[in-house]
Amino acid sequence: MKYIVIHTEARKELDGAIAYYEAQNIGLGLDLLTEVEEALRKIQLNPNVGTPYKIEGVRRYVIQRFPYVIFYAELEELIWIIAIAHGKRKPDYWKRRQTE
């Protein structure tokens, strides 16, 4: 099983989203974290679970309960989490991260 590496900016996106939801309702931020962790487990167990994205080599996995999408790429030795993006945010803002 390949290990998961989360881009620093993707981690910041997740932390910001957790803080936002926690401020809206205590416990909601933890719910988001739980959903993301479950999605990451599914991706790790089956990297093809996500839908191929328009950028070659990138897949997307939609979080069910929250409006977030995980963009990732399966590399030779790991799964690279490129972005944990809000579904309504400017598309592809994270593209430059593919090579970082």
Strand content: 25-35%
Order of helices and strands: EHHEEEE
The SS-based structural class is: alpha+beta
Q: Segments where pLDDT lies below 50 for 5+ residues?
A: none
Main β-sheet: number of strands, strand sense, barrel status?
5 strands, mixed
Number of E-state strands: 5
Q: Helical percent range?
A: 25-40%
Query: Roughly how many Å is the radius of gyration?
Result: 13 Å
Our count of helices gives 2
The main sheet orders its strands as 1-5-4-3-2
Shape: globular
pLDDT averaged residue by residue: 92
Span of the ends, CA to CA: 23 Å
Keywords: Toxin-antitoxin system
Organism: Iningainema tapete BLCC-T55
InterPro entries: RelE/ParE_toxin (IPR007712), RelE/ParE_toxin_dom_sf (IPR035093), TA_system_RelE-like_toxin (IPR051803)
Protein name: Type II toxin-antitoxin system RelE/ParE family toxin
In short:
With 100 residues, the protein is of the alpha+beta class. The protein has helices at residues 8-24, 28-45, and strands at residues 3-6, 51-52, 58-62, 68-74, 78-86.
Describe the overall structure.
By secondary structure, the protein is α+β, with helices and mostly antiparallel strands. Helix content is 35%, strand content 27%. The chain contains two helices and five strands. It has helices spanning 8-24, 28-45; strands spanning 3-6, 51-52, 58-62, 68-74, 78-86. Strands 1-5-4-3-2 form a five-stranded mixed beta sheet. Strand 2 (51-52) and strand 3 (58-62) form a beta hairpin. Helix 1 packs antiparallel against helix 2. The longest helix has 18 residues, at 28-45. The radius of gyration is 13 Å and the shape is globular. The two termini are 23 Å apart. This is Type II toxin-antitoxin system RelE/ParE family toxin. It comes from Iningainema tapete BLCC-T55. Pfam families: ParE_toxin (PF05016).
